[in-house]
Amino acid sequence: MPLTSSAADRSARRPDPLEALGADRTDLVCSYTVIRLRRWRDVLAVLVLLRRIRREMAGLAEPPLLTRTSWERRSRSVSFLSIWPGRQAILMFNVLATHADAVRWVIRRKLPNWTGIFGLAGVADLGTRRGGRHWLRVLDDLAAAGSAGSGAVNGSAPAAGSGTAGPAGAAGAAAAEDAAGAEDAAGAAEPTGAGGPIG
């Protein structure tokens, strides 16, 4: 089936994941949210929210490099994974009106949820063939720096010029703190860290 013009436009704007997630990227930030729905009819509401978020997200100056949504039938849960080109990009996403609406929707319904923000520690074996540093060496270096009394937090050395954890967590920790503040500013009912659909 041929792509419609709008679908073709969206496809042209969407970056190739392998190109976008180049081996030389060290500033990537990943967000993962899982929400357990109470009723199957909530799936329809999530789909509507997700569609609105994706539409507004397409207008971001720095859109996500990768987004995935998955559904777990047995546990009635939905998961959202997104990888962003940096801290500023995910902060801009967090203040989108549609994302704030989704966060409030989760909070109002008191749906069990969990959201984590992660920084890139390194690449795995296949990734090192394209360049980049293996994740195990990065984490070993961070652990060694922490045991040397460098002021490490949870095994991560402080990043230069920041008061947060090092490469494995600096962007993620800062983004998580700022995202929580952004959600509060956007009118979230509680600063619980409740995540909304990522897209």
Protein model, in words:
The structure is a single chain. The protein is 41% helix and 15% strand. The protein has 199 residues and is α+β, with helices and mostly antiparallel strands. The protein has a four-stranded antiparallel sheet with strand order 2-3-1-4. β2 and β3 (77-84) form a beta hairpin. Mean pLDDT is 72; it is low at 1-11 and 150-199.
Report the β-strand fraction as a percent range.
15-25%
Q: Sheet bearing the most strands, described?
A: 4 strands, antiparallel
Structural class: alpha+beta
Q: What gap, in angstroms, lies between the N and C termini? A: 24 Å
Largest sheet, spatial ordering of strands: 2-3-1-4
Rounded to an integer in angstroms, the radius of gyration calculated over CA atoms is 18 Å
Q: Helix-strand pattern, N to C? A: HHEHEEHHEHHH
Low-confidence stretches: 1-11, 150-199
- General shape: globular
- How many helix segments? 8
Average per-residue pLDDT, rounded, comes to: 72
Please name the defining characteristics of this protein.
globular, single chain, 4 strands, alpha+beta, about 200 residues
